Amino acid sequence: MTAATPVPGSATEPRRLQRILARQETILFIILVAGVLLLSLQSDKFLTVDNLLNQGRLAAEIALIALPMTLIIITGGIDLSVGSIVGLVAIMLGVAWYNWGLPLELAIVVALLIGTACGLFNGLFITRVGLPPLITTLATLALFRGLAEGIAQARSVRGYPEWFFILGQKNFLGGLTSIPNQLLLVILAIVAIGAVLAWTPFGRSLYAIGNNETGARFSGLAVDRNKLIIYTLSGFMSGLAGWVYVSRVSTTRSDMGTGFELTAITAVVVGGTSIFGGSGTILGTVLGLALIQLMKNGLALSGAKGDSTTIVVGVVLIGAVLLNTLIQNPPERLKRLLPGQT
Amino acid sequence: VTAVTPARAASQGRSLLATARRLLGTQEGLLLILLVVLFIGVGLANNQFLALNNVKDLFNVNAYIAVAAIGMSMIIITGNIDISVGAAIGVLVTLSGYVALGLDDMDLPLPLVNVAAWVVPIFGGMLIGAINGFFVAYLHIPAIVVTLGTYSILRGGLILVAGGNTLYDLPAGYSFAMQDSLGIPNPVWIMIVLTILAFLWMRFSRTGRSQYAVGGNAEAARLSGLDTRRILMTTFILAGAFTGIASVMYATQFKTIQAVVTPGLELQVITASVVGGVSILGGVGTVIGSTLAAILIRFIGAGLVFLSISPFWVKAILGLLILVTVLADVVRRRRQERQ
């Protein structure tokens, strides 16, 4: 067999074309455009600037969580505790302000610090004790939610001052078509985290860790330190999401953020980040988030009942990954759920 | 003879000590000891805890979690996971209710109606398991992704079809889980029998043992001639059957059925498996462990009430429990490695 014979699977023209088409971002973008066009035929309220910006407002909390989740999944890890951190931070914000009598500004800082501490706690267990991320964050999912429930004792906190709602309910500069404040926060986070992941040695090291952790360790990368940083970041960003959430809905309850982890992970995986680690981009996650939110909204506008729109989320998730797997045909087919973490 | 006795006594004492140490060295032994300590401890603090009705309740309430955790343990032992189990239970519980009401309306004989309402969800569970298993085994999509997807589809589907309806006026005799046999609640019987059967099957049957091989090292299992795809498929279908049985136990414990997915139910099931000593990395664990863990979780929840601690702290204690058991496992493994 010489290079002249077009052997299937060799590095010839069709293979290169395949690779461009096979990029999850490309596939996603096509699905997204097709979906938006289809849904805009169903309802003329769908494809309006107001509606799209409002969807951005609604997706902001999940987006803030999905960004660091992308980094974590790229390293081959996972963080199931993010939804519970949202709940704990929300409760602590209310308790620090209402029960402890702290000024609201300080209460926000305290709540964010608690969220960060939660992430650090996860990170320490994963890096110092060497527990698998899935099991560590499953435990802290219960622990943090339990603390929120135990501290709240089913009471909710309301009556925040007017300025507190600016972040969650107002638009930047006011006016009809301007951008919701929290969406601005999300865009800032997308740019910052996207740039760090794509262009810094720290960001590239995350791919190395996800591809081969032992190899990364032997080539002198600060594996444990970098993992500690991203789990702590995940805690901080979940805290931020908690703050935005309370500001948007004007009240604090201990069940806030329940199930956020599943939506965030879904967005990341739909966005093309491999659950085995080693590949993925922030752009993919942003497209995944947009796809999920717009599908849900478009279907709701076409008359779908409540949360029944999650059917589409599930179909898109399995469909996108199936398409990607079939095209790329990964060599290690029966790789396990989590490659050797300990 | 007299000279031998002390030596024999000493060796017996040693072997007893060794047995005790071996028992403590397993997750199952640790859980059993924890259960006994909690039972006696809380019982001494409040002797209402040991009242017959309460003891029945201690073993009864989480029996369906234990049965679902049998299937979950099998899946985790093969190195996979099932996030969709909570949504599947929600769907199958509702299915059971609709079958019971639908057939009852057709004036079929009651025993037939009830048996159908108990059996159809089991087949439904196997179908859901087969779909998950097909994607995992034959299309090579990671189980966490597949079952996250089926979780969303099942949950959305239930809302679309039944939308939080409450089903009532269920036929007489339908409420299987509210009945006793020989003075012991039916769910407890099912939990005990299924745990023993599943344990024996996993220990002695060819497919059961292969589950450990696949979870320990899938590639090695495949190279040594095991049909890993068939084993994974069998595991998911079988786990689906346990999910179906758990759903019937859940559906028949009250007079009405709510067509909703209980939030976090999948985590309760996974928690039982993990606290029971099933390693999330695959290849290790038994269903006896997961059943003991499901009972322990109920003991802790009920114990708090009897110690007048707010039940709102239950989840925090559960989280600590998972951390502590997993830490204990790490310590135990390091000690064994040193030996």
What does this entry look like structurally?
The complex is a heterodimer of chains A (342) and B (339). Chain A is an all-alpha fold. Helix content of chain A is 69%, strand content 0%. Chain A contains 14 helices and no strands. Chain A has helices at residues 13-22, 24-42, 49-74, 82-99, 104-129, 133-152, 166-169, 181-199, 201-211, 213-218, 223-249, 260-270, 282-301, 310-328. In chain A, α4 crosses α11 and α5 runs antiparallel to α6. Chain A is globular, with a radius of gyration of 21 Å. The termini of chain A are far apart. Helix content of chain B is 73%, strand content 2%. In chain B, strands 1-4 form a two-stranded antiparallel sheet. Chain B has helices at residues 4-24, 27-45, 52-60, 63-77, 85-105, 110-137, 143-161, 186-204, 206-216, 218-223, 228-251, 265-275, 287-306, 314-338, and strands at residues 166-167, 180-181, 184-185, 257-258. Chain B contains 14 helices and four strands. Chain B is globular, with a radius of gyration of 22 Å. Chain B has 339 residues and is an all-alpha fold.
